[in-house]
Amino acid sequence: CVAPIADDSDTELLNSSLEQVPITPNPEINGDQNDELRQRRSATHSKLRAYEAKRRIAYESKLQSSSLYWHAFRTLMHDSLLETQKADILVRGWTHASKTYGSSMMSVGEWRVDEKGTPITDAKKKKKLFEANEKGSVGPGVTAGGDSAAFMFPAQTRGSLIPMYDKRGSLAIPEFYREEKCGSIIERLADSAANVARKYEDMAKYMNNDVLPELSLLLDHLKSEVIFMEKLGDSIMNELETAEDEVCRAWDLYYNKTLDFCGSTPKTTKDRLEGSHDVSTLVFNTAVKGCADVWVEEMRYRMAVAFLSSVWEKCSSELSKLFLSMKDAECNRRTQIKELMSKAAQRQECLWLGLPSVVNPFLKELNEWPMERKLVEDDVQYSIRERAQSIQRDEAEHRRTGENPKSQAPELNGVYEVDGNFELSSPLVSDLMCKAKVIEKRSPGMMSSWKVSLAVITYDSFLQLFELPPTCKLHSGSAPEVAFQNLIPPVVVPSMEGVKGGVKFPSAKYWLDNLVPSESFALPNCVVSHKDEKNPSSFEIVETILTSGASKMFTKTLNRKMQFRAVTREEAKDFVDMLKRSK
Asked: Which residues contact 396 (CB under 8 A, 6 or more apart)?
């Protein structure tokens, strides 16, 4: 049976829905008994309406809460990725600026500066300038070294300068200039510029070797983690939404089938449910129109609820693991970002020693940044809560006019929630089912073989056959509850292993495939015969069905035969009697 709605033990539905329950034969349906059946059907339908109304309210709240928090987590991870990208771009720009500044300062230290004071950093221009210095000449009013003097001194001072060159051909400082400026000021300034350049080059080298690789690895890892977590989380939410849609779809089918049945005239209902065809009096090639089996739709609805409960339990576990994984990833990211930024800032502080430190406030802020696990997790949780509230307000503002939640479906109005306080049990204990039995069946023909099937007789005068998979190793006479359990595939929800393994989701679309009857017989249109002389434990059903399509041109009806075999003659006779009483 299914645990109460909105309770964490919802998965008890799948585990206990197929417990053994006594299945009593249906008495002959006529007169007052038809009224009794109608009353019982109506009571069951009322209970299911109340149950579905209460279930939708509860599950809609759970789904909205899970979806809200998942979207909050997604925005957090996207912002974390954006923040890491910004940090990577910032450090790369910082490294490029340090390298560019060092290159410019080295040009200043090497006296590679044009007359406008712009350092010459291009290698070809540097070479050209050096070659010009090598070919220069000295003369009154003429600057030696050609263009080199033009690069080094303003035009208004060139005539008064007497350029000198050292042994290497580099431009030397004029003697009078040394005397005026105490000799080595400019040289020391150039040396200072070269020293600063080397410090900035070391800074850029340190950033390229020690900071940027780790930051790039962190960014690439975070991108893959965000993509994977988004895929997993979206798959989980899609699985939950699809499972809920399947329950609603199963409910709509059941509800519409019930309305069709209840809307039939008393005579039509009586023709469907009462009477039995005797072999001696049966007129072949006749069929009762409008036969319908509400139990099949009710069974699918119950099992869809069972699947939803199981999916919720497993998806909740996977979401919890995903949220913990995302929290760990965010905490680790913040820790690594702090460490890398601290390394870069500390290196910059070393570079700026002797100057008013502009990095101290940043370092102080980094050092005072609390990184205790509990504080970080609380901060992450608070951020998620704020984002969830913001998303909720945004969704409320942009909600389309006239869009109603599923819990406000018209057919669920006017029910009492208290009537839905019960556990939805297995389809095998439904009031719409008469008898279930595991028997063997085969189609006519020499090549056909016996196959084990679960046969279900419903009060709507139908025989439903579910072919059991060959791997279940059941035989005729096995417990119907065990056979029905073998029709139910395992519940698979999105998980980390499943997403990595390429498992397709959502599984709700195919989970109920085995619960579709392989054969369906409308008993009012059937002749059931038990022939003791050949095989005492076997019997045969012949169904008259209306033709459709091109077949109508040749005949109005067709006959379909199916042979059945029980374990003993008594079991076969008992099942045949039940079939005849249920017609």
From this structure: none
- Contact between 518 and 466 under an 8 Å Cβ cutoff? The reply is yes
Phi, psi at residue 27, to the nearest 5°? -70, 165
> Nearest to residue 344, comparing CAs of 93, 106, 102?
93
Secondary structure class of 275 (helix, strand, coil) = coil
pLDDT in 10s for each residue of the chain, 583 residues = 333 333 443 434 333 333 333 333 444 445 566 678 778 888 888 999 999 999 999 999 999 999 999 999 999 999 999 999 999 999 999 999 999 988 888 888 888 888 788 888 888 887 887 777 666 533 333 333 334 344 444 444 333 333 444 444 444 444 433 333 334 456 766 777 787 788 888 899 999 999 999 999 999 999 999 999 999 999 999 999 999 999 999 999 999 988 877 665 555 555 555 544 444 444 555 566 666 788 998 999 999 999 999 999 999 999 999 999 999 999 999 999 999 999 998 988 888 776 554 456 667 777 777 778 888 888 888 888 888 888 888 888 877 655 666 767 787 888 888 888 888 888 998 889 999 999 999 988 778 889 999 999 999 999 999 998 888 888 889 999 999 998 888 888 888 888 888 777 777 777 787 788 999 999 999 999 887 667 888 899 999 988 887 777 788 888 999 999 999 989 999 999 999 888 7
Distance (Å, rounded) from C-alpha 327 to C-alpha 381?
9
Strands 164-165 and 171-172: antiparallel
What residue type is assigned to position 295 of the chain?
W
Amino acid at 330: E
Tokens 């008393």 correspond to what residue? 266
Quote the CA–CA distance of 333 and 340 in Å, as a whole number: 10
